[in-house]
Amino acid sequence: MPDTAAESILRHDWSRAEVRALFDLPLTELMFRAQLVHRRYFDPTEIQLSTLLSIKTGGCAEDCAYCPQSASYETGVDAGKLMSREAVVAAAKAAKVGGAGRFCMGAAWREPKDRDLDAVAGMIADVKALGLETCATLGMLTEPQAQRLKAAGLDYYNHNLDTSPEYYGDIITTRTMDDRFDTLARVRDAGINVCCGGIVGMGETREDRVGMVVALATLPAHPESVPINLLVKVEGTPLTDVAALDPIEFVRTIAVSRVTMPKSMVRLSAGREDMSDEMQMLCFLAGANSIFCGEKLLTTPNPGRDRDQSLMDRLGMKPMQG
Ligand code: SAM
Ligand code: DTB
Ligand code: SF4
Questions:
Q1: Is ligand 3 within 6 A of the CB of residue 208?
Q2: Of 40, 182, 250, 274, which has the highest C-beta tally within 10 A?
């Protein structure tokens, strides 16, 4: 297909009606559309592997209803201090040996203090020097903080919209969706790649999932990385008893994300521990092409390397290089 036609699918003006119509397609049609788009920009046999490390765990001032690290809930996650630079570098080396191409550092902060940001900047420089792509998720950023992270060598910043603008207030009351858009704009302006997605299975409606994808796909530029998390239900959080999402609906959310954001890495993020190999394969067929590997996400379990290696072997898929 000529380039001009290919570029015409990189749209930023998706309407709710269009995205709703995608969700409503027979699954066989939706999957076919997603695969056509996926193959235009990616090798469908490759999966990008990222590793996560919680560099500062628990005790967070925000009240995100899904989060085991919020100080508002009794979840058994103890508040820790910021890890040392040496310990972070050791974890990054191990991740590299394990085959990860990207290393993501997460901190349970509403926003980083400047002193903490200096320490994280040092970690970023060291991790980058190992030849890994760097990613961080530290909460809201000011403009100078975003620039400081860029100067330290940060490749990606993760900051999620989490859900639809309409459902947002049911999930988080301590910061607004507009606060999130502001941080995303600062990250983008600083020249850092944006990693931005959300969580499904939080008791939201189909219309909320439509709204979340519309919000992501109509950002001024599509996020380079779009993590789609399935809620990991943690005891003690307000969402611990929420009804399970139909797995097919999760697959639809991945496929619609792929169709609307063709060049983005769509990441099958939290929730894989409870997914069958077959469901993960459906997600890859729907256009997901990135996962977190390693035994732990930030505080909750993730399939270990052995299970993932065996899944990749059975599917005949390989890690994405560089
Ligand atoms: N504190 C920073 C912030 O919220 O911006 C960064 C870390 S925070 C843990 C990163 C993301 O993890 C959240 O935006 C949310 O999408 C995801 N997350 C947290 N708890 C989760 C859970 N129980 N299930 C699925 N995703 C979760
Ligand atoms: C994202 O969207 N998912 C990752 C990453 N960004 C930082 C985090 C998932 C966290 C799941 C809950 C936990 O392990 O604490
Ligand atoms: Fe804090 Fe981030 Fe958890 Fe919200 S998602 S409570 S900001 S660590």
A1: no
A2: 250
